[in-house]
Amino acid sequence: MPLSSLAVQNAKARESFYLLTDGNGLHLLVNPNGSRLWRLRYRFGGKQNMLSLGSFPEISLADARAKRDDARKLLANGIDPSRQRKLDKIAAASAAKNTFGAIALEHLKNLEESGTAAATMKKGRWYLLDLASPLAELPITEITSAEILSLLKKIEKSGRRETARKVRGSIGSVFRLAITTLRATNDPTFPLRRALLKPNVQHRPAVIDEAQLGALMVAIDEYDGWPTIRAALQLIALTMTRPGEIRFMRRSEIVWPKGMWRIPAERMKMRRPHDVSLSGQALAVLRDIWPLSEGNELVLPSIRSPLKALSENAMNVALRRMGYTKDEVCAHGFRSSASTILNERGYDSDVVEAALAHQDEDRIRATYNRAKYWPQRVKLMQDWADLLDEFRRLPRKNYVSAP
Questions:
Q1: What's the farthest any 2 CA atoms get from each other in the chain?
Q2: Residue-by-residue DSSP string for 275-324
Q3: Candidate list 72, 320, 358, 392, residue with the active-site label
Q4: In DSSP terms, which residues pair with 56 in a beta bridge?
Q5: At 99, is the secondary structure helix, strand, or coil?
Q6: I want to staple 164 with a disulfide (CB 3.0 to 4.6 A). Which of 154, 156, 248, 334 is the partner?
Q7: Is 403 within 8 Å of 327 (Cβ atoms)?
Q8: Can 335 be counted among the known catalytic residues?
Q9: Is 107 among the catalytic positions?
Q10: Per residue in 8-37, pLDDT tens?
Q11: Residues 28 and 22: beta-carbon distance below 8 Å
């Protein structure tokens, strides 16, 4: 006869344990010390087994019956409930260890060991350890797209749209690591690719008037500050590279016989190696500055130490000293100057993009080749250097900057 809730509630301790049977193997064990334990007796593989279902009153009669029914469903499917419980405990323990935070740290360690640039590592830690910290203690397999979207929307509402997109990408990288190491089966950031607002693009100020670019180059040539800063500004204009690539230029990267600068992948934005053809003017700047870094690796060392690169703002500070405001020009803007002027003059846009190390938009094309369009790029870089010399000789006009 099935038990009633009242019978279970009134079960008192005796000198020895006794059982109250409910049916289908479920019974309540009443111990002399007063504890009351739910247990399920069942057969599996021809053997008698016992499964503990918890204690009363924490587990009510209804709860115990539900657990019994779940166990009987497993038996009907040829699964031993006791073994399944052990597997569930192992899975739960594994999930507790495989938190988002733990795998994020593993991802960051992999990036560091693969030679990722220090600046990129700093941003990665900020994205994953600070901004994504609400996910840190959650098991990787339990995190939903809704939770991630809520986190990203908070960042977005603070006005940091681009940061929200970058955080989504970083979180996705952690999930992809978890998937490849068999600790997750899906990436919940995938459905969120179009869930965020597009960032408000702020174009870097750049001189696009040829005469005023010439005037700027003259101002740089006449700059009387630290010589490596003057050389850095001359080279960033001549090579169409980014400030970080110029600041950390190393002597070992300059291939003098070929007139080439080989930038390693870890210092490039797209994490792909890039070769720069050095014009005669760029080589002349390097020859002039070369003795200052003798015995050290950095070509353009800081004023404070030959072992340290120029500071991140050194070139922009020099431009301010020359009288140019932050709304008129910045070190990164020389790339825009070159791109705009060369395209307007009819140069092949594909060659210009390759010289700028921009990622090929057609993902179906062949694997990136660091020497793509190389003969054309050699000519382009020399033409650009010659154009800068030509601009220096143009009559001066009022300053014109890019919108």
A1: 111
A2: EEEPPHHHHHHHHHHGGGGTTSSBSSB-SS-TTSBPPTTHHHHHHHHTT-
A3: 358
A4: 36
A5: strand
A6: 156
A7: no
A8: yes
A9: no
A10: 888 898 989 999 999 889 999 999 998 999
A11: yes
Tell me, what CATH number does 290's domain have?
A: 1.10.443.10
Supply φ then ψ for residue 18, to 5 degrees: -150, 165
> Is the separation of the CB atoms in 68 and 50 below 8 Å?
no
pLDDT tens digits for range 75-84:
888 888 888 8
Annotated catalytic residue 358: yes
Rounded-to-integer distance, Cα 97 and Cα 403, Å: 52
Is 242 annotated as catalytic? yes
Residue 13 belongs to a domain with what CATH number? 3.30.160.390
Q: How far apart are CA 279 and CA 387, in angstroms?
A: 12
Catalytic residue, from 183, 242, 250, 267: name it.
242
What span, in angstroms and rounded, lies between the C-alpha atoms of 155 and 274?
34
Q: How confident is the model at residue 64 (pLDDT cuts 50, 70, 90)?
A: very high
- Which entry of 269, 272, 320, 392 is annotated as an active-site residue? 269
Give the mean model confidence (pLDDT) for residues 200-215: 80
**pTM for the full predicted model:** 0.54
Contact partners, residue 8, CB within 8 Å, separation at least 6: 20, 28, 36, 56, 61
Residue type at 264? Answer: P
Burial grade of 45 (CB within 10 A; 0-12, 13-18, 19 or more): exposed
Alpha-carbon gap, residue 130 to 231, rounded angstroms: 38
For the question of residue 372 being annotated catalytic, the response is no
185 and 276 both lie in a single domain: no
How many helical (H) and strand (E) elements, i.e. helices and strands, does the chain have? 15, 7
Any catalytic annotation for residue 203?
no
Tokens of 377: 């790029």
Per annotation, catalytic residue among 85, 125, 272, 368: 368
Q: Which of 41, 85, 332, 372 is catalytic?
A: 332
Rounded Cα distance between 382 and 249, Å, is 20
Residue type, 182: L
44 inside domain: yes
- Please give the pLDDT value at position 397: 56
Structural domain of residue 29, as residue ranges?
5-95
Together in a domain, 144 and 236: no
| Same domain assignment for residues 221 and 286 | yes
Active site residue: 161, 267, 335, 377, which one?
Answer: 335
